[in-house]
């Protein structure tokens, strides 16, 4: 019996020893895993205790891939291949080896390897960039457009460059269809690309043709591509074309857009400047549309424009009419309507009309004649406040504003 007890005691001691050794090994393994995850792979402690770990090898090699412009030595590549066999589902191994296959002039094999990396880790930017390059070089434009779409979401901080690259693809007949298909599924990228095209020399008809129905519906939003396109055409002095595009962007009827003065009742509508009104609301004063009229409070401290609109009147005689309510101080600041020719080079054109807006406290109708000469493709109408020697507040309300053909005022 004592022997049996001794044997059992010996076995218990052996088991305990094995468990102790296993516990130490497990603790060591946990420590190494924690160190690998918490510290840089180049940290001395990581290199000392876990240099051959697949995660350490792949993190180190991937960083070297970036730091050394894609050039890796034989030792690094051998270590990567070994790590790949030990961690066959780690996307980084496929990325590193796929890149090396590109350098070794094995493009077809490289694409297969990189596509595997992408399937294992769809968020790895470098893989997407390498595949994008290959797809573009080999004419796989639909696949390239898809990579652009993914990258635009992954790399929000470089949305501009991505959008610019996609915009370039829209100018190539072979890539246009693929790009259009991609943009229709990515509203944010589509808007960014259309804004790039709106700033470029791309014809407006081409931009409208590329835009999806949803993008055309949203064209008039403040941050969308429509206002950008209209501004570009105005800045280029292409006023008639700018007005046609403006009409299309905001879905206006011919009857609405063809009036000499747009929105004379100062209504809150979808259209925007420059062919609709701009209103001041700052230290100069306030122009407040209300009930079909324009309420003006001009502080009289500085000179500037309180309200304005760009017109595209044909050469000929016209009259500007309005009704005024309110008044002003006898001396000091003043209000007046100004109409100037708009020049393509943005220099100040000839003034066609300067009409005082001086109230007497009574309701009064006013009218003034002017002539648009040949060569004056657009005209800037502006209600201007002119400061006097001493500030004084002017409060007036303007209504029944109109511009009519014919120089003589109506009775």
Question: Strands, helices and their partners?
Answer:
Blueprint: H1 2-38, H2 44-50, H3 54-67, H4 74-86, H5 91-103, H6 107-120, H7 125-137, H8 141-154, H9 159-169, H10 173-183, H11 187-199, H12 204-210, H13 213-217, H14 225-235, H15 239-249, H16 254-257, E1 278-279, E2 281-282, E3 285-290, E4 293-298, E5 304-311, E6 316-327, E7 334-342, E8 348-356, E9 364-372, E10 378-386, E11 394-405
Antiparallel strand pairs: 1-5, 2-3, 3-4, 4-11, 5-10, 6-9, 6-11, 7-8, 7-10
- Global morphology: elongated
Through-space gap between termini:
135 Å
Q: Give the SSE order as H and E letters.
A: HHHHHHHHHHHHHHHHEEEEEEEEEEE
How would you characterize the largest beta sheet? 6 strands, antiparallel
Helical content stands at 40-55%
User: Strand-residue fraction?
Assistant: 15-25%
Rg, Cα atoms, Å: 36 Å
Q: What's the pLDDT, averaged over the residues?
A: 80
The low-confidence parts are 14-41, 43-51
Describe this structure in words.
The strands form two sheets. The protein has a six-stranded antiparallel beta sheet with strand order 2-3-4-11-6-9, with no helix packed on it. It has a five-stranded antiparallel beta sheet with strand order 1-5-10-7-8, with no helix packed on it. It has 411 residues and is of the alpha+beta class. 48% of the residues lie in helices and 20% in strands. The chain contains 16 helices and eleven strands. About 9% of the residues have low confidence.
